[in-house]
Write a structure and sequence with these properties.
globular, mainly alpha, about 120 residues, about 55% helix
């Protein structure tokens, strides 16, 4: 069942492009209350090397477990499948807040993004 869910997520979010503006590092800076210039945003985006959502490591997901309130719609679609997959794979052995991130995102994203 777990593998079936992971496959469904992989297929449903296949080809979702990396966000053009708010990546995980930009979202973290916004969370920290920083007012970012376009040049600063570009520099932060350059720190995020993943090209596909499936490139995110568990360590990265755990380190950026608080980004969802600061993502735009592109970022939401890019990071959600990674966090969902993490939660399915790691729900029994992780105590990271990353387990709750997709629940928060789904509960609050519909209103924010007209889903």
């Amino acid at each position: 069942m777990r593998q079936e869910l992971l496959l469904k997520i992989k297929l449903a979010f296949k080809g979702v492009p990396k966000p053009s503006d708010v990546t995980k590092s930009v979202a973290r800076a916004l969370d920290d209350g920083l007012k970012l210039s376009p040049l600063q945003r570009k520099g932060l985006r350059a720190e995020d090397h993943e090209q596909a959502w499936s490139d995110l490591t568990d360590e990265s997901i755990e380190a950026f477990d608080d980004i969802f309130p600061f993502l735009d719609s592109q970022g939401y679609l890019f990071y959600l499948p990674a966090f969902l997959s993490y939660s399915i794979r790691r729900h029994e052995d992780s105590c990271s807040n990353a387990l709750n991130a997709p629940i928060f995102a789904c509960a609050n994203g519909a209103e924010r993004f007209d889903l």
